[in-house]
Amino acid sequence: MKNLFDLVIVGAGPAGLMTAKTAAEMGLKVVIIEKKRDINKIRRACCAQFVMDNGYENESLQIQDNKVIFTRNNFSIPYTGRLKKVVNNYHYSPNGHRIHFAHSDGRPFAFKFDKEQLLQDLWEDCERLGVELRLETLAYGGKDTGNSVKLDLKSKGKTSTIEAKKLVIAEGANAKLTDTFGLNNGRGLFGTPFVLIYTIGNTYGFEPGSWNQYYGRAYHPYGEIIVAPSLEENDTIELTIIGNKQLLPETFYEGITKNSPLRENFANSQIVDKQGCSLRSYAPLKKPYLGNVITIGDSAAHVEVIVQGALMCGYHAARAIKDELQGKNGFEEYTVWWNDAFDFNRGEFNDFISLYGSLTMMPKYTDDELDYLFSLLVGKVLNGNFSQFEVPKKVWNSILEYKGQIETERPLLFEKIKKIDNLKL
C-alpha cells in the first residue's frame, strides 16, 4: 500500500522522539502523532535531571561535547542546553535533623538539564532524517488488523485514519491508548497522584546545586516535599508537591511557604512558573507488546522511567521494530531488556510496593519519631546513589545499625520498624 508507514509513533516526548530518530537512522518510514502544538513547550510536571549513578537502570551516563553518552547501551543523543550539577542530597526531619548523601570525591549525583532544549535537539535530528510530525493531532482509537495497525486521529475538528506496519505508544503515564489496544487488561491501578512543580525565585537558605527532601506533617500530611535546583539563578528553586483529587497539591502550598519550618526561606519569594500533571500509578507491564503494538517508557512503567530511561526505551524499541519487520522476534528481545533494566520490573511487584511503601516514612511515623530516627545519622555523610530506589534503602540500612539503641530508648518505635529489618533492603 502506497501510503503505508513502517512505523507510527504516538507521543513526541523523549521516548517517542528517540524511537523516531533511531528508526529513521535505520531507513524506516516514520510518522509521529503529537497532540501538543509545540513539542518543546513543556507545561507538564516532569523529572529533568540526568542521574549519574554508575549502573542506574543498568546504565552509566557520560556528558561531554554537547552529547549525552549511554556507555552500556551504546548510543548517544545531542544536547546543547544548560546543565547544573547536583552534588549534595539532603533529607530533613521536621526539626531540621539532616541525613546527608555525597560522593567522597565530590563528583555529582545528577545534572539538572533543560528538557525543552533536549526535545528540540532530538527533533532537529528527526527532521533532518525525514521523520514526519503531525502536531495538534489526537490519537483516540484504532485497530490492529494483523497485517498492520490503523490509528484513528482527530485534528482541528476533523477525523482521519493513518496506517502503519507497527505502532509505538509513547503517550506517557496515563496510558489511555495503551488501554485502547488491550495492553492494560488485568493491569493493577494503584491510584492517581496529582503533582505540582513550582519554580520560585528570591528564596533564601537553600544550598545551590543541592537536592532536598523534607519529611513530616510539619510540611505535608502524608508525603515528603522536594526542593530541587533550578537552571535559573541560585536563589531560584523548584518545589515539588504531591496531592490527589481530594487534596490538590496547591492546597498545601501556603502551609509550606507560610507556616512550615521553611517559612523564612520563602519569606520574600515569588512564583516564577508552575507546572502540573496527574499520573495513573499502574503496575508495570511485564509484557509491553501485543500483536503489532508496543508501548514504551512511562506508558508501560510504574509511574515513570525518567528521561534517561525513556531515551533507552526509544532506542531499543526502534531496533525491535526493525527486527520485527525483518521477521525476527524484536518485541520479545525488547521485553527481556525492559524487564532487566528497571527496578520496578525485577522480582515480585507486590514485594517492591511493600518495600518502597515502607521506605517513604509517611504517614506511619510521627514528626517526633522522624526527628529521633534522623538524629541517629546527624554528622554522617552517606556515600551512596541518587536513585529514588537506592537512597531510601541506604537510609534505612544506616538507621537499622542502631536498632539495639532504638529498642532500648524507643520501644514503641522499635515495634514499628521491626518489620523493615526483614525486608530485602
From TrEMBL:
It comes from the Bacteria. Residues 5-184 form the FAD/NAD(P)-binding domain. Pfam families: Pyr_redox_2 (PF07992). InterPro entries: FAD/NAD-bd_sf, FAD/NAD-binding_dom, Geranylgeranyl_reductase. One of its GO terms (molecular function) is oxidoreductase activity. SUPFAM superfamilies: FAD/NAD(P)-binding domain (SSF51905). This is HI0933 family protein. It comes from Ruminiclostridium cellulolyticum (strain ATCC 35319 / DSM 5812 / JCM 6584 / H10) (Clostridium cellulolyticum).
